[in-house]
Input
Amino acid sequence: MYAPGDVRVEERPDPAITAPTDAIIRLAATCVCGSDLWTWRGTDPVTQPTPMGHEYVGIVEEAGAEVRNIKPGQFVVGSFMASDNTCPICQAGYQSRCANVQFVGGAQAQMLRVPLADGTLVATQGIPAGTLVPDLLAASDVLGTAWFGAVAADAGPGKTVAVVGDGAVGLLAVLAARQLGAERIIAMSRHEPRQKLALEFGATDIVTERGDEGVAQVRELAGGLGAHSVIEAVGTQESMMQAIRSARAGGHVGYVGVAHGVTLPGEELFYAEVHLLGGPAPVRRFLPHLIGLIESQTINPGKVFDLDLPLSEAAEGYRAMDERRAIKALLRP
Amino acid sequence: MYAPGDVRVEERPDPAITAPTDAIIRLAATCVCGSDLWTWRGTDPVTQPTPMGHEYVGIVEEAGAEVRNIKPGQFVVGSFMASDNTCPICQAGYQSRCANVQFVGGAQAQMLRVPLADGTLVATQGIPAGTLVPDLLAASDVLGTAWFGAVAADAGPGKTVAVVGDGAVGLLAVLAARQLGAERIIAMSRHEPRQKLALEFGATDIVTERGDEGVAQVRELAGGLGAHSVIEAVGTQESMMQAIRSARAGGHVGYVGVAHGVTLPGEELFYAEVHLLGGPAPVRRFLPHLIGLIESQTINPGKVFDLDLPLSEAAEGYRAMDERRAIKALLRP
Output
C-alpha cells in the first residue's frame, strides 16, 4: 500500500528467520480484510509503502532453532497477532494481548515470517483438500473474530442474538451464534446477497432498518426487552450505539469492529447496564476448535469469499470490497 | 432538598398506599448517599423541593391488598429500585432494570411508601438487635452496590482486585472482594481513616497515588500485567479511565459510581480489551445473601457509618460528607 487507493504487487526479498522462535510459511491463500479498507480509504494513515495483509494459511517452509511443535511441511493456520500462548494473559485466553505480542503483517504475499511460531500456529491434520483452504483461511481472522464476538456477547442456547454489520465478520458471527446454539439470530442487513448468506449461515430474522428504527425492530423481536446478545462488527459510532441500544439490561455486547472515531457516552452506558467486551480477537484461543469444525465439514465459513483472484490482482480485491461488489476477496499467491 | 446545599427537615403528610402492591414502612434508620451529594453540590439539578434519600430499613406498617409475602410487623430491607422480581430482566438478576421498575425516593423520612413490595422487600429473621440496624441499612444500597461492583468485576479466588474510590461503596467493595475470596485487594485511598477501614475490611495493599501514577502502581502490584478485577466507585472521567487502565487485558471492570460527565474513548477501550459492566446495582439480587451474612455477624458493613445523627440534623449529614469529615451519615427518624 503506497497510499490510500494505491495497492501495488511488487517483487520483494523472501522473508528470513530473524529470531529462533520464528517460522517461514509458504502461503496457500491470503485475503483482503475489512480492516484493510480503513487504510485503503485513508482513515488510517499510510506514512510509507507498507506490506499489507494479516490473514494466512500455508505450509511451513522453515522453522527457527527454538521452534518445538511446528515442523516444516505442516499445513498451518495462524492469526494476525503472534502470541507465546504461555503468559498469564494467553493462558486466560487473550492471546491477542499476549505479554510478548507481535503484529503479523505482510501476509498478502507468497512467503511470510511468523514470530512465536509455537504459540501462534496451529497445524491441520495432514494437508487439507484444496476445497477446505478458503474455510481455513477464514478461520485465520474473520471467523475467529466473529467467534470471539459471539462468545463475548454470550451467545448460546435460549438466547436472542442480534448482529450489527453484514461484512464477512458480521455474517460469520451469525454462523458462530448458530454453532453456539442461539435460539434466534437477527442479522441487520439491507443487501440482498448478504441477507441470503446470513440466512444460509443460520439467521432466523433479517432487519433492514438502521439506527433508532433498527434498534426498535430488534428490541421488539426480542420480546420488547432487547436482545440478550449483540455482536458489533463495524466499528463506527453509529454501529456501536446501535449495538448497545439493541441489548437488554443485563445483556452482552461483543464488539469486534475495529473502533474508529468512537466515543461512548458514560451516562447512557451506565443506565444501559450491559456487559461490554471487545477488541482485537484472540483468534488463537478458538483455532483448534474451528479447524476441527472445518475438517469435519460442520461449517463452511469460506463462503464469505465471493471473489477469488490471483495475488497479482490484489488491488481489484480492495476495490471490489470498497465498492461492496464483493464481501471478501481471496488472493492466490 | 430545596436547592444545592439547602436541605430542610419538614413535616409532610404520611405516605399512603396508592397501588395494591405497595407497602408502607416505618423507618428504623436511613442515611445520606454519596450519590445525594451530586445534588447537594449542584451537579444534578434541583428543579423543585425534592424529598431525598433512597436507603431504608424498617418495620412494615401496612401492606396493599395484593401483597402476598410481606406482612405488617416484619422488619424489612429494600433497595432504591422497586422491582417485581418476576420479569425476565429480574429473573436474570438485573432487578434495578426491572421491566416495571420504579425509583424509591424520599427515604430520608419517618415513613416510606415502597412500590412492588413483594418483589422489592426482603424480611429479616425476626426483629434484629439494634446493633445490626446500621449493617442492614448498609445492605440497602452501599453494600449491595459494592457487592454488584465486585461481582461485575469478577472478583474471586486467586484474583488481584483494585478498588478506585474510598467512599462507603469503595470501602465496602473491599469487604465484598474479601468475602468473594479475592487473593489480593488494592485499595486506592489517600485518606488515613479510610485506609484504616479498608485494611480492616480486608485490603492487602494501599495505593495513595492517582491517575497515571496510581495506574502504574496497581499494574506493578498485579505482576506487571494489571489487576484481574477493578471496581470503580466514583463516577468521574478520571476514575473511570483509572479503572480501565488498571485492569489487565481480559480483566473485568465493574463500575458503580454514578457516571457524571464521562465519555469513554472507543479506540482505547477496544485495545484495552477489558470486560465492562456497571450501572445502578441490582441490590435485590444480593439482599438475601447479604442479610444472612449480617445476621450471622460474618460481616459488619455498618462500620462505614461514622456519623450518627437524628433525622432532624440531616443537613449536617450532607455537609459532613461533602467536606469529607464523615464517610457516611446515618439518620435516625
Notes: Chain B has a mean pLDDT of 97. The two ends of chain B are 17 Å apart (CA to CA). Residues 144-278 of chain B form a domain with the Rossmann fold fold (CATH 3.40.50.720).
